[in-house]
Amino acid sequence: AGPGVPVVIRGFELTKDAWSLDFVSQKLGHRSLQLKSVVPDSAEWARLEAEALPVSVSKFVQDVQAGAGRGRYLHDWSLPLGAPDMLEGFQVPEVFCDDLLRDNDEGTLYRDS
Question: d(Cα 107, Cα 80) in Å, to the nearest integer?
Answer without folding.
Answer: 15
